[in-house]
Design a protein that fits this description.
149 residues, mainly beta, two-stranded antiparallel sheet, 9% helix
Length: 149
């Protein structure tokens, strides 16, 4: 089992969260909420307005998201779903725990896998940096779901 930190469309209430609930993909158990311990640029980019965490630690904001405990089957599914390693790369980050399901948590922080990208258009570095993502947020950049592409 591994911890995965999701910050975009896989969070509860977001367009792709359903894949986290589908047992056919493996097990994903919500554990809590957190923020990356280090700042990263979270941008909304590309023709489909996809949230992307740029692999530029130290820039941007400490990004808010959700922590899930996943089995190997779900981790393999998420690798495929996130286009890893071509579109996103799965890397380990430290996440500060803000809230833990069921009370006592793992402590102040937990190491999680996150899907970020080191390969992106140079202009993305100049886009607005967000500290959290909501597909219906005030940014006005509506996510274009996969089924509409």
């Amino acid at each position: 089992m591994a911890h995965v930190f999701v910050y975009g469309t896989l969070k509860r209430g977001q367009p792709n969260h359903r894949v986290m609930l589908d047992g056919a993909h493996g097990l994903a158990a919500f554990r809590g909420r957190g923020r990356t311990a280090e700042p990263y640029p979270l941008v909304i980019a590309g023709e489909h307005n996809i949230p992307r965490l740029l692999q530029l630690p130290g820039r941007g904001h400490c990004v808010a998201g959700e922590i899930y405990k996943v089995d190997d089957k779900m981790l393999r599914f998420l690798d495929d779903f996130e286009g890893c390693p071509a579109m996103y790369q799965r890397t380990a980050v430290q996440v500060r725990v803000l809230e833990w399901e069921g009370g006592a948590g793992p402590g102040d922080s937990v190491q999680c896998f996150v899907y970020s990208t080191a390969t992106y258009a140079p202009e993305w570095v100049h886009l607005p940096y967000h500290d959290s993502y909501d597909s219906e947020g005030s940014h006005g950049l509506r996510y274009n779901p996969r089924e509409n592409r």
